[in-house]
Amino acid sequence: MVPPKAILFDIGGVCVISPFQAILDYELAHSIPVGWINHSIQKGPHDTGAWQLIERGECELNDEWFEKFKKQLSVSEHWSAYWRKTVGEGKAKARADGAVPPVPNINAKALFWEMMRTSRRPDPWMYPALKKLRKDFVLGALSNTVAFPTGILDDRGVLYTKGLTHLPAPNPHADDSEDIRDCFDVFISSAHVGLRKPDPKAYELAVKELDRVQRERGGQGVKADEVLFLDDIGVNLKWAKKSGLRTIKVDLGRTREAVRELELETGVKLLDEERAKL
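Structure tokens predicted for HAD-like protein (278 residues):
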């Protein structure tokens, strides 16, 4: 197949450890049906959901927002529908009386900060691949993000810093920059541009910026179908395809398989015999 001219990456769950892992761990630890938290986040609503607002940079990360986030995770109508569907599919144990149990009591602040801490660790397969691809391709990031106020403390009272946490030597990347943006030619943060995936305008902006960089390097520009996009959320990939981009799905805990697909798409050997020690 014809290699892409540019490669566009999601960050969480692709280039760094997925915050969904923190969500899964929280659900398992608190006996919450797996998938409920992601389901309630995706239910939004799109215009006013706490998670959607913070990722578009339309509100500040503070205690008021955490209260709104908790409410988003506690909508009884969403929970009843999800519980009945889950029970119907045999994925959860129904109560003897057939009644829907109370909505799970989720500590939204603790959950959020654990998601943020988890997603500071570079992915052991995808991160080294970024370093190898940089010299041959225009690399971009299109990430749904949060803008952190200066001096914000996490749920443990610790000053939060969003830099990458590289393992020390002999890790070959121990001295790399802690700023993930340094891995890319283009970095589009939803909270800073006011657009979040899967809004088609987000993909249009990404292609426009990748095209700009490629032309500045003396190329003939980049079209949507010459961009390969990697993401871990199905709806984001669905709308990327509708916007004309090529896509690779990165499943939770399976970034090695995604890097293998990336090898086939680019023609560049990316996987080492030994797993990178990050």
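Strands lie at 6-9, 138-143, 186-189, 227-231, 246-249.
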